[in-house]
Amino acid sequence: MFRRVVPLSTAPSRFSVKTSLRYKSSSPIHRAAAAAASVVSQNASDALEAAHHDNQRAHSSYWNAVGNEPVTAETISALLSNSLSNVGVKDFLSRQECARMVDVIRTHAIVTQTYFASVPSARDLQERFIQEAKIDIVGRVASYLRTVTNLPVRLAREGNQEYFAGLLRLINSSALIHADFGPFDAPGWEIGRISAQLSWNILLRDVQGGECIIYRRFWEGKSDDERFKQPKPGYGYTAEVVEGREVQVVTPQVGELTMFNSRNFHAVNAARQPELFPRYTMSSFIGLLTTTKGGFEIILWS
Q1: 71/77 Cα distance (integer angstroms)
Q2: How confident is the model at residue 101 (pLDDT cuts 50, 70, 90)?
Q3: What is the count of structural domains for the chain?
Q4: What does DSSP say about strands 86-90 and 175-178: parallel, antiparallel, or unpaired?
Q5: Which domain holds residue 106?
Q6: 32 in any annotated domain
Q7: Shortest CA distance to 76 belongs to which of 287, 252, 230?
Q8: 3-state secondary structure of 22
Q9: DSSP letter at 254?
Q10: What is the DSSP letter of 177?
Q11: Distance CA 221, CA 138 (A)
Q12: CATH number for the domain including 142?
C-alpha cells in the first residue's frame, strides 16, 4: 500500500517554501542527511559533496524529515541524496508574470525538430519571454540555485554546443510512470557524468488535475528496464516497479518552483477539461557534476 505524505507549511523568507516528507530517524539516509546538515553551516559546497557521496545509499523505502526549512544547501543536499521528497518555492513567479508568459506562448509557433537543431527555436521563445514578458526564467532559476548552493551553475554542453534548458511542456494527458537520470539516459555525454539529478518545474496557469506523483524508488537502469519497462512503442514502467514504496502527490500551484529527485520514478495525472485549462509548465533538469579539479558544479538541461 502506498503512503501519502502530507505537505508541511512555510518558512520566513522572500519565498514560501514547502517540504513534504516522512520522518524515520533510524534510517541510514537520515544519518547521512544529518552529517550533510552539520557541514552546511560551514560550507555549502561541502554539504553538496556529502550529498554526492551519500547518493548511492539513497535506496530505502521511506523519506526522512530534515525539518520545515527554507531552500538551502541542506535541503538541496537532502533532495540529491533522496532523503527529502520535494520542495516548493511559492510565488517564484507571480501570477501576473505567469499570465504574461502564457500570452507569449499562445502566439508562438512550436517547432518540433531534432534536439540540437530545435535549440534556436526554443531559445527564440525564451527571448520572447525576456523581451515581451520581461522574464528570464532560466536565468532566474540558475541565479537562485547559485545563491543557495554557492556553486557554479551553467548549461550542459557537448563540444561547442550547449544544451537547451527551460522546456515548455504541454501535458494534458497523463505521463506514465518513468524516471530520468543522465548516466542511464545518455552514457558517454556530459549529462551522463553527473552523480545526482533533480527536476525543476513551474506551472504557468491554473489546471484541474495534473498532479505529479513521486515514488521513493530509484531507477536502477538496465535491470529495471528488463523487468518492468513496457514494450515499445510504450515508454513507461509497470506499477510493480513502485510496489510498496512511499509516494508523494504534489498538487501544482501557479508560479511555484517545485524540485524533486528525478531518478525517483514519477508520473503525472491527466488534466481535466484540458480544452479549457491546458497545462503549461516550464522545466529542466539539474545535475550535480564533479569538475576536473575535484570540485562540484551544477549543470542544467532539458
Answers
A1: 10
A2: very high
A3: 1
A4: unpaired
A5: 83-301
A6: no
A7: 287
A8: coil
A9: B
A10: E
A11: 29
A12: 2.60.120.620
Domain assignment present for 124: yes
Q: Which three cell numbers stand for residue 172?
A: 494534458
Q: pTM, whole model, 2 decimals?
A: 0.80
Handedness of CA 96, 99, 104, 110 (dihedral sign): positive
d(CA 137, CA 122): 13
pLDDT at residue number 246: 92
Q: Which residues are 60's β-sheet partners?
A: none
Q: Whole-angstrom Cα distance, residue 240 to residue 220?
A: 14
Would you mind telling me the total number of residues written for the chain in this entry? 302
What is the mean predicted confidence (pLDDT) over 126-152?
Answer: 95
Which pLDDT belongs to residue 281?
93
Looking at the DSSP assignment, which residues form a beta bridge with residue 86?
20, 260
70 occurs within a structural domain: no
C-alpha distances in Å from residue 84, one per residue of 68, 76, 248: 11, 9, 10
What is the DSSP-derived secondary structure letter of residue 233? T
| Tens digits of residue pLDDT in 35-51 | 333 333 334 555 555 55
pLDDT at residue number 61: 61
pLDDT at position 7: 31
In the predicted model, what is the mean pLDDT of the chain? 79
Query: Above 60 in pLDDT, residue 191?
Result: yes
Cis amide linkage into residue 233, ω under 30° from 0: yes
Whether residue 46 lies inside any domain: the answer is no
Residue type, 212: C
- Residue 36's φ and ψ, nearest 5 degrees, are -65, -40
